[in-house]
Amino acid sequence: MDWALLIAGAGVAGWIDAVIGGGGLVLIPLLLAVMPGLAPAAALATNKVAAVAGTASAAVTLVRKVKPPRAELLRMAPVAALCSGAGALAAALMDAAVMRPLIIALMLAVGVFVAFKPNFGTTQSLGLRGGWRTWAALVAVAAIAFYDGIFGPGTGMFLIMAFTAIFSQNFLRSAAMAKVVNTCTNLGALVVFIAGGHVWWSLAVVLAAANVVGAQLGARTVIGGGAKLIRFALLAVVVVMSCYLAFIQWG
Known about the structure:
Blueprint lengths: L1 H18 L4 H11 L5 H27 L3 H21 L5 H21 L15 H19 L4 H13 L3 H25 L5 H50 L1
Helix pairs in contact: 1-2, 1-3, 1-9, 2-3, 3-8, 3-9, 4-6, 4-8, 5-9, 6-7, 6-8, 7-8, 8-9
């Protein structure tokens, strides 16, 4: 029953990650609840294996359909991996209790902006490239990837918002780019976890397979629903994650 619950949870987490991000908020607490003896580092590391597999799977599906600019992604990928790895190394030095209020404030700001700008991310499609936009995207990717290595919640949402604002494109194209970059941030952090010997591989492989199934369903949901679905999903994630983090901080 424990394994069945974890497999189902990994599938749901994969679907959520593919649609907007935040699947770790499902799978990590589930791992710790079902297996209370599991060390937090092992739960984080095992979740990262599943997240890498699922996010990469969703990225392939979305890139084939949406065809985001590959030159931009090739520049962002190594920056994302290196900065996420650096964030994972720095995680022990950062106090999560200090970070949570800042992240809650940022998420609420994103939610208010999207709620009062109904056309943002839903009408633009072709996007603008080059010049300052390339450098701005690299800086944004570096900062968000570092955050993903340290803390993580909302990484996919922050990437989608950054790419939509910088490149003046719709949420669907930004989601495809975000999945590729998020795969790299997950890989960077995972390398650190593997080096530390934290991954429970037999469980991780099973959860990764379930996560891929959920991610494929999620990618197809995104393609079918388009930018408007992502907008509603983004607003839902803002509310859920803000409430979750507030409960952890002050509950």
